[in-house]
Amino acid sequence: MQLLSGKAAAAHISGILHQKYQVHGFSVHLTAHKISSVGPAGQIDFGGSEYIAAGKIEMATHQLRPEDKYLWWELGRGSYFVECNETLHLAADEIALIEPEDRLLRAGGWHVPLFVRGHVAPVELLLQVGVERLRVKENARLARVRLFRIEEMKPRTRASRKTRSKEPKRAKRKRK
């Protein structure tokens, strides 16, 4: 796999709010567009015919200070769905790793790192809050995406196989 530069990765991401602050050497930040609390029930089975996604209850934002241009979400301990502003458009030979932003971790929140492929519109994360209160501002940078190009595996031919090293034969035990 080959890790693409942030600039190359950004070419596969729409909805970037500010290239200067979101695009880095080998990653691109993903930003918060909407946050919802997780509904009280979901359901999953082996085959998927009885699958029911957990509901989403959109969280209201509020103004923290009069001079704030953007609003804030106040999140207590628990799980939340985050819809990002960005959409991924990956080619068949590309895979993206989405990982939590360091500042999110230090503020007491996280989401699992995940690999995604194809068209992801919009990017959604399951945010976990482990502190009493986590404030998240609209468009906050919550995650980083790193884009990899998967190199095609060439089939091995008989000539390219490594020869087995010959192991020494075991000595036969003499019977009494």
What do you see in this structure?
The chain is mainly beta and 176 residues long. Helices cover 9% and strands 40% of the residues. Strands 1, 3, 4, 5, 7, 8, 9, 11 and 12 form a 9-stranded antiparallel β-sheet that branches. The longest helix is centred in the middle third of the chain and has 6 residues. The radius of gyration is 24 Å and the shape is extended.
| CATH class identity | Mainly Beta
Count the beta strands: 12
Mean pLDDT: 92
The Rg value, from CA coordinates, equals 24 Å
SS summary, helix count: 3
Alpha-carbon distance between the two ends: 59 Å
Classify the secondary structure makeup into a structural class.
Answer: mainly beta
The CATH fourth-level homologous superfamily: Deoxyuridine triphosphatase (dUTPase)
Q: What string, H for helix and E for strand, traces the elements in order?
A: EHEHEEEEEHEEEEE
Q: What number of structural domains do the residues give?
A: 1
Uncertain stretches of 5 or more adjacent residues = none
Q: How would a textbook summarize the main sheet?
A: 9 strands, antiparallel
Beta fraction of the residues?
35-45%
The CATH architecture can be named as Distorted Sandwich
Tell me, briefly, the overall form. extended
Q: Give helix % range.
A: under 10%
What is the name of the CATH topology? Deoxyuridine 5'-Triphosphate Nucleotidohydrolase, Chain A
